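Bug report (template v2)

What were you trying to do?
Predict the complex of my protein with heme C.

What happened?
Run completed; filing so the output is reviewed.

Input:
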Amino acid sequence: MKPVTEIIKNKPIIGWLLFIVTIAIVFLVGLLASSIIERRAESVFVYTPQVEHGQFEPRNEVWGENFPREFQSFKETEDTSFRSMFNGSASIDMLEVDPRLVVLWAGYGFSKDYNQGRGHAYAIKDIQNTLRTGAPVDGEKSPMPNTCWTCKSPDVPRMMNEVGIAEFYKGTWEEKGHQIVNPIGCADCHDAKTMNLAISRPALIEAFERQGKDITKASHQEMRSLVCAQCHVEYYFDKKREPGVPYLTFPWDGGMSVEAMEKYYDKIEFSDWTHKLSKAPMLKAQHPGYEIHSTGIHAQRGVSCADCHMPYKSEGGQKFTDHHIQSPLNNVASSCQVCHREESDRLIRDVYERQQKIIQNRDVLEELIVRAHVEAKTAWEKGANEKQMQAILMDIRHAQWRWDYAAASHGASFHSPLEISRVIATGITTAQEARLKLARLLSDLGFNQEVPYPDISSKTKAQEYIGLPVEKLKAEKKVFKEKVIPQWLDQAMEREKTYNTKEL
Ligand code: HEC
Ligand code: HEC
Ligand code: HEC
Ligand code: HEC
């Protein structure tokens, strides 16, 4: 066969034909590509809602009808099969893992029962099951207030809208048990009309307002963390704001650092409880995840909670946000490798290294505080008075606050390893300071030996040591679960049958 150039030289018309055909093909391919892109854009941006519902529709499956992909991935928080070295989606009995916690929390609910958190799908079940909420059967009251429901459910904004914020917090926990039944979901983080991210919890909005900031001015990227900051934060119940109302409040007025919040609490002389052994006025750090994260390198480089815990996912050519909120270590490819080029094993090792190194010192601090509580107890027994004990008890309060601040949010040793190491170091100094003073005081009181460390080698032994009747509590809880919970669920089902989705 002759080369093309020669054919064209002989018959120029063929050259022109080839030229026109090529143009036509390029044009058609372009048309096809633009139509594909347009269709994709349409399928992403133009959606026809299957159901119309208002902001206060608490049922996630109703919102889910309009967004099946987000809903499907959201349902995966039910999976409890993943374990990392220290965290994961399985519920871990932390008092069993670390019985020292029982002594640290003696006299407070957490010494009865404390599990490492699992997926959002379990928020309601877990608060119903924990011994901390007690066994309110036959008109009895729970030891916890209604405020405890606040971070558990989209029924919360619904109720706040119906009865008012303060009225929602008021009263004891069992009163709203039949109202709060849907686990954490769509209405907690989204605006129903636009599906934009939205803040549903007043405590966060109010904390911003008190600092002269307007949360509605937050950027899109900030919102990808702020929706989490509605719950993954430090808080306390302010009982002075409105009489008889434990009003949910974030102690951020002077800043979010461990020292700033400690100062805030000291100034208003707030304490969560009085320690059973040492009688120190204690603080319980809740879960200052947002505060600690904001001191870390990722936050400082503008990385949001959602970047790691809700990465994008692709399905059938559509990109969407993975609503399976979980440990990112179960999903390193989407959560870390979007930004880091290292192998998955290497990245996981980076996380474990930080966690292990920090836990090493955290354990030291824990033991020092246990010793301080026990030594303080001995000092009281040997006849110490309030005045002699005051500075010591404040040291114990501050040391344990630092320990708890570092431990309670679970992700902290990765979210901000440098800050957490610093906080633990200051905790160790403060605990040692307390013990120095205790040694001096004990010696003044004529006691010159080492106070023996109690045998708290298991959860059972530790609970016996602090005199907690756990078997009784468990038996009562069993009755509560069999008698009360099914009633709550029945009542909720009857109520939800009457819902007019459009009007909610
Ligand atoms: C309405 C309150 C609320 C909001 C909003 C919220 N969380 Fe949670 N989160 C919880 C509670 C409560 C738990 C513990 C659930 C349990 O163990 O029953 C939890 C558990 C978790 C866990 C542990 C899950 C596991 O499987 O180990 C992670 C991770 C988490 N949340 C991340 C986030 C992130 C990231 C955001 C923001 C995108 C967020 N959460 C928003 C209340 C909330
Ligand atoms: C803990 C907070 C939280 C909860 C609960 C939540 N979302 Fe989201 N959702 C997000 C975040 C964060 C994004 C990413 C938003 C962005 O960057 O614009 C998002 C994005 C979306 C989007 C936009 C498209 C996409 O996939 O990025 C839709 C639609 C959506 N969510 C639906 C739902 C539905 C339906 C539910 C309930 C089944 C739900 N979400 C529950 C936080 C949440
Ligand atoms: C959205 C981008 C982004 C994502 C997602 C991300 N990182 Fe990073 N990471 C950064 C940036 C930016 C830095 C700061 C260092 C720098 O500027 O190079 C950093 C720093 C680090 C460091 C060193 C900081 C230190 O603590 O000493 C480690 C380790 C790390 N990332 C691990 C991870 C892991 C593990 C994940 C997934 C769970 C992850 N990163 C997810 C952007 C990201
Ligand atoms: C750079 C990635 C990254 C960012 C950003 C990030 N996290 Fe994490 N988070 C992690 C890693 C890694 C862990 C440790 C997981 C493990 O040990 O299995 C973790 C752990 C957690 C845990 C405990 C998980 C469990 O399995 O019990 C919670 C809760 C959590 N993060 C919430 C948040 C919140 C809230 C924010 C934003 C304020 C945030 N995280 C920002 C990577 C990140």
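What did the reviewer find?
The mean pLDDT is 94. The domain at 60-344+467-503 is CATH 1.10.1130.10 (Flavocytochrome C3; Chain A, domain 2).
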